[in-house]
Amino acid sequence: MFELLDKLCPGAWRQMARQHLPWLLLDGLLSALPFGVFLLLVERLLAGPSQLAQWLPLCALIWGLLLARTWVARQVCLLTHGWGVHLAEGLRLRLAERLLAWPVGRMLQRDGGELSAVLLQDVDHAEQAFSHLYGPLVSSLLMCGFLLLAMATQDLALTAAMAAGLALGLPAWALLRRQGLAQADRWLDANAQAQAATLEYLEGLRTLKAHGMAGARFARVDQALRRQSRESLALEWRAALGPLSFISLLELGLPLLMLVGLWRWQGGAVGLPLLLTFLLVCMRLHRSLSLMVLGLAQSEVMLRSARRIAALLDEPVQADGSQQPAWAGPLQISLRDLSFGYGGAEQVLSQLSGELPAGSLTALVGPSGSGKSTLARLLARFWDAPPGTVLLDGVDIRSYELAALQQRIAIVFQHPQLLTGTVAANLRLASPEATQAELEEACRQAACHDFILALPQGYETELSEQGAELSGGQKQRLCIARALLKRAPLVLVDEATASLDPENEALIQQALQALARHSTVLMIAHRLHTVVAADQIWVLERGRIVQRGRHAQLLGQPGLYQTLWQAQQQGRDWAPGVAAQA
User: Fold this and answer.
1) What is the DSSP track for 307-351?
2) Taking all residues of the chain, what is their mean pLDDT, rounded to a whole number?
3) Domains defined for the chain, CATH in brackets
4) What tens digit of pLDDT does each residue of 337-375 get?
5) For 80, which of 46, 239, 355, 485 is 20 to 30 Å away at the CA?
6) Radius of gyration (Cα) for the chain, nearest Å?
7) What pLDDT shows up at residue 5?
């Protein structure tokens, strides 16, 4: 438990304990003291009639204790709630920093719903544990301890009878608690799956509706939500078994106390005031212990959430270098024996080596699954691929500081990524200090200046999520303009023209040529006619380079490139014929 706390809030929980413990001790003591005053009141009451003035000090003492306890309880509440909120803020910041230190490739592989469940739901559970459970539980436990010690000094036999139910209930609760722990894991897993399924459905809803599949695909969401409901009900039942058993056995202590108390009272061993006080204390103890166990049952889910947070914090981060890039122009890139597989699976790249001359445009072609995108992502350090190496101007890519490296690499993805905000703000992601003139120059080179001016507010037009107002070609040209604005020594282009019409394809080819004037460019291409002017073409198959050279050279020799080219040419020739027949 303490190891888990050290992971969640290193050192802070010890400071919190030192700060809170005096207040919690005082709260527990003030909760127990009124029972001592009650004993004095009963003794005075049974002693016979007395003047009102003799009762006033005891009544005033009780009122004073209650007021003091109320004020202390308020302080405890403020401390625990404040610390809980502080804990949640710190955890989310630490988790965000941890995620930023992950390899980008791992982020692409992980379920967004699962990560958001940890960042939101699990952190909320941890905050609730400290804000709403920790203070009352510790305070009640201390009060029970004070009362048991105080009553033991009065009569050990009655104290033992009063605690008999506790001795019976604790083993039963500990035994049945394991079922609740296992069910808490299943419930949290079901919650994460339901969140992931709902998020996936909402993100793809436009596509699903366009294909008339919105209802059919909702079945997965429905299944996940039904499982969440089942696991939630099962958690309520299994988590309640332990506390209910404990409370039932605990209540046996009261009739036992009454029997032992009457026997000792009749024998003259104890007086009636003490017996009545024991009965009152017993009922108070039972109520407090019952609430404590119910609170602990709630904490099982919170404990599991804390472990999920700790597991995320324990995930290894990407090793960072210390060297600062000092590149003044395009890079010379060397690949040495690169081999890579995802999560220990079959190798996607195998013993791949090659050179990308500075200022060149290298095209990667090949069938799907041949490793083209994987190679591009290794150049961006989305993953590392030991024992192979990537050398940038002769220096191992892992030697560079990761943040500085990423600032000097521009990536144009197959699916354009735009954020909610203005057109200018999206462009300035590459260069926050860029002037308006620089924005416009980059957009002219990327053939998107004219359509931006046609927007309602030009460069200050607000775009919705993923730039839904723009066509695919327009979004792609904006992303190329962003890469131009960055003036990165290395540019990675992943299938930028794979799904565009001929007009947009021609415009983007023009933009890519502008990009290649200032950078070393690695371009993944699906349409081979877009790479005929490349300085070199690498043909990949099953993670290996099976051919390399310029377009004319590769076209003149039998091999995979010639086969792919002929297949694509046949497809281009076939389309007009089909249109003519129609």
Assistant:
1) HHHHHHHHSPPPP---BPP---SPPPEEEEEEEEEGGG-SEEEEE
2) 82
3) 2-179+241-314 (1.20.1560.10), 329-408+488-573 (3.40.50.300), 419-487 (3.40.50.300)
4) 888 887 666 788 888 899 999 888 899 998 888 888 889
5) 239
6) 36
7) 65
Residue 540 phi/psi, 5° resolution?
A: -100, 140
Q: How many CA atoms lie within 13 A of 249 on its CB side?
A: 18
Give the model confidence (pLDDT) of 248-260 as tens digits: 888 888 888 899 9
> What's the rounded Cα separation, in Å, for the pair 333 and 520?
8
Q: Which residues contact 494 (CB under 8 A, 6 or more apart)?
A: 373, 376, 411, 412, 413, 414, 524
Tokens of 271: 């007086």
Between residues 145 and 106, the one the model is more confident about: 145
How far is the first Cα of the chain from the last one, in angstroms, to the nearest whole number? Answer: 73
Percentage of the chain lying above the pLDDT 90 cut: 8
Integer CA distances (angstroms), 226 to 16, 346, 382, 486, in order = 40, 36, 37, 48
Count of CB atoms situated within 10 Å of the CB of 188: 22
Query: In angstroms, rounded to a whole number, what is the distance separating the alpha carbons of residues 366 and 406?
Result: 27
CB count within 10 Å of CB 498 equals: 15
Q: For 197-235, how does the pLDDT look when each residue is reduced to its tens digit (9 = 90+)?
A: 887 777 677 666 666 666 777 788 888 888 888 888 887
What CA–CA distance (Å, rounded) separates 419 from 421? 6
Which amino acid type is present at position 39?
A: L
- The C-alpha atoms of residue 260 and residue 158 are separated, in whole angstroms, by 7
Please state, as a whole number, how many other Cβ atoms lie within 10 Å of the Cβ of residue 227: 18
**H helix runs in 204-328, sequence order:** 205-210, 214-250, 253-266, 272-314
Please count the other Cβ atoms lying within 10 Å of the Cβ belonging to residue 519.
Answer: 26
- Helices marked H in 251-271: 253-266
> Collapsing DSSP states into helix, strand and coil, what is residue 381?
coil
The two three-digit tokens of residue 196, written as one number: 């992931």
Q: 117 is written with which tokens?
A: 């469940």
Which tokens in the block code for residue 190? 């079901």
CA atoms within 13 A on the CB side of 37: 18
Reduced 3-state DSSP string for 90-123: HHHHHHHHHHHCCCHHHHHHCCHHHHHHHHHHHH
DSSP state of 423: H
Of residues 300, 293, 297, the one with CA closest to residue 250: 293
Torsion, Cα 102 107 108 113, to 10 degrees, reads 170
DSSP 8-state secondary structure symbol assigned to residue 461: P
Instruction: Tell me the two tokens of residue 171.
Output: 């083993």
How far is Cα 535 from Cα 512, in angstroms, rounded to an integer?
14
Q: If pLDDT is split at 50, 70 and 90, which confidence band does 442 have?
A: confident
* pLDDT, tens digit (0-9, with 9 covering 90-100), for 383-406: 887 778 889 888 888 888 888 888
- Across the beta sheet with 333-341, the strand order is 347-356, 333-341, 389-392, 395-396
User: 332 or 196, which is more confident?
Assistant: 332
